[in-house]
Amino acid sequence: MPSSNSILSDIGxxxxxxxxxxxxxxxxxxxxVHNQEQELLQKKRELETLSYKATNAADNLKxxxxxxxxxxxxxxxxxxxxxxxxxxxxxxxxxxxxxxxEAKRLEKETAETKEKNNSHxxxxxxxxxxxxxxxxx
Length: 137
Prior knowledge:
With 137 residues, the protein is an all-alpha fold. It has two helices and no strands. 88% of the residues lie in helices and 0% in strands. The longest helix has 113 residues.
């Protein structure tokens, strides 16, 4: 069965025309229907607005979650970088300690070599003098 709106549109009756009302009871009913239609239209608009807001909130939540994940990854990278720097610092300190020990060892070895060299020079001079002195006499 066709609705009254489709019948009215078929005969060229648009929303600008009003259907004649037979009595006061029909007038009340017509006002009630009109008010309910207006309320339904308002509720649809509210639904669209809330739906739009919900979609925007969901998109915003998604973006915030991505940003949090990105920030956590950045924090993890910085933490690993800090750990690597600490590790490299420890290695450098060990290497420094080893080099200090090596320098001390080399200084000691140089001092011993100089002492041996001096001892050999003294012995050579003594031997030279002992060889030359008998010839001069």
